[in-house]
Design goal:
267 residues; alpha+beta; Barwin-like endoglucanases; 6-stranded mixed sheet
Length: 267
Amino acid sequence: MFGFGGGGRAPAKFEECYHCYSLACADKAHAEAGDKIILPPSALDALSRMMIEYPMLFKLTSESGNKTHCGVLEFSAPEGSAYIPFWMMQNLLIAEGSLLTVSNVSLPKASFMKLKPQSVDFLEISNPRAVLEHAFRKFSCMTKGDMICIPYNSKNYHFEVMDCKPQDAACIIEADVNLDFDQPVGYVERDYKKEAEVSPTRHAPHTHTAHTHCAYAYTLRTLSTVLTRPHAGRQEAEIRVHAAPEPVRRRVAQHERKVQPGRERDR
């Protein structure tokens, strides 16, 4: 069905223009949490006749030349139309009904990504590792310069893709990805020295000055992610924490205090 074998047929290029609409127009608003698009049945028919690589990945190009990359959810759109997540329409600077060129591409497995949260609200998520693990299972690839959206707890969290390796666009399906975070927009590191001068009787907590650019750093295994809890003074196999900002350190310390009494009761 999908063109494996086939008597030595050469790889072919799929490229079509569609009128683009947001997923909400197809009553698929739930699919906004990810980068999957909906194409018409004729696209599947054309792709099945080609020797293409899997998973199916596509490059989207607007009339103004803006580009991004995505996967496919299904082939049920009306002929001549395509449905894509609204946040991708914002990246491409297009409106409902705009023309969009869709072409199949082959991307390497991602090995590294760096994201920049667009709000300090991300630091207040109680379990960011679990949120990220769940969210990235719905993505196929990442493109440098994109602003991705991750909905969580009735709120949308936006992240700018600052870097992506081995190239500016890469596949994250079944890939081991080192994920790094730049400090969020609007984040200000506490000045403990100044606070100590104002209140000399208060003991300023110890803080690291190195690597203050990074809120978290993870190694994600997409689709089969194992994110372990950080332990002070050592690195776990699947997660690294580098000088997390003070709100993160405080939250970890609070969690430790809650766990300790339970451990002693078990004894």
